[in-house]
């Protein structure tokens, strides 16, 4: 969700007023938060319901994990560091500090006013401490990693009471292909106002930082097409080239059908690649990439349910390197070469299923009990929920994320565009060619199609 509110100098009286009153009610379990921006209200909900962050936490924890960084990520960190250092004097003269953190919220460096840096150290707003939402709740850095665009967080909008004297604004740098966060740039002031130009400065810094990422994506896309063309001349198997995120750069006719993407047409803009909409395939591609980084000669295979296929299809991954760096994989269909990939990968950390879903109605946040939701539908760049309160836009930006969060609480992915509440299925309709449709319980008895590849899972879930 993009917050378009322009930053202006804030008053020093940050820990009082209607936002603080709403915060006090919300941490006690109430849900109605009038006067609180939707961006903040949704973040509070994540902190309370999903991450279970103690609102009375006084310090950020030590960052315990250090993820592997690609060379492109190192370029981003260096560029952000250069830009942060360049404005450190101006920000410092206003009593502020500038920080750069990685995708986990781990602060890498901090610049600015010496006295404020010392005060920031009291709550561990300093290098090697973690400021993700999962660690410390709503804040400029952590919430920017969860949202899009500049994210200002003022005073009592912070989830932890100990940070209510701070005003901050953060923005994430996202990979131009995967859209996943790489780093976050943040400005913080204690009991003072942020400069009015900070939002435009943050946006400009991120724009400049993305230029080398776009250049690298353009080059790697061209090299994957070249590798595909060379392999096409030596194999009769259906073939595709995918990037390290599992997105398709180019595919032949058969691979295009199986992956549900256009055939023989590499994207003109290399950052606009095709998502096959097959979570198993994407997970396998990313696993293959991690293995190849440690062993350049690694080749692996697995089986997936492809589009329009009733039986699992064998696929084999062969890594493609450029200048010593992995840029993607060639994928051969109907081939079982190399090491066997594990069937599934466990989550990196214990996941707590949400107790309620968050939806938006105009500028208000609507908290829905799970039984109230009939199904979720992906439509364009939005996810919509069919609920007992009508059709509402979900706060979640991704149907894949929603599917993952709800997998253990009675919801099932039945189509690339639909996740349904199994307890709300009223009837099952079979078409002339055996295709399934679900008639959902509700006032309008809406129908949800079941894709052929998801039909076996639906039958198993409903004991058919």
From TrEMBL:
Residues 357-464 form the HTH LytTR-type domain. GO terms for molecular function: DNA binding; phosphorelay response regulator activity. Gene3D superfamilies: 3.30.450.40, LytTr DNA-binding domain. Pfam families: LytTR. PANTHER family: STAGE 0 SPORULATION PROTEIN A HOMOLOG, TRANSCRIPTIONAL REGULATOR-RELATED. This is Transcriptional regulator, LytTR family.
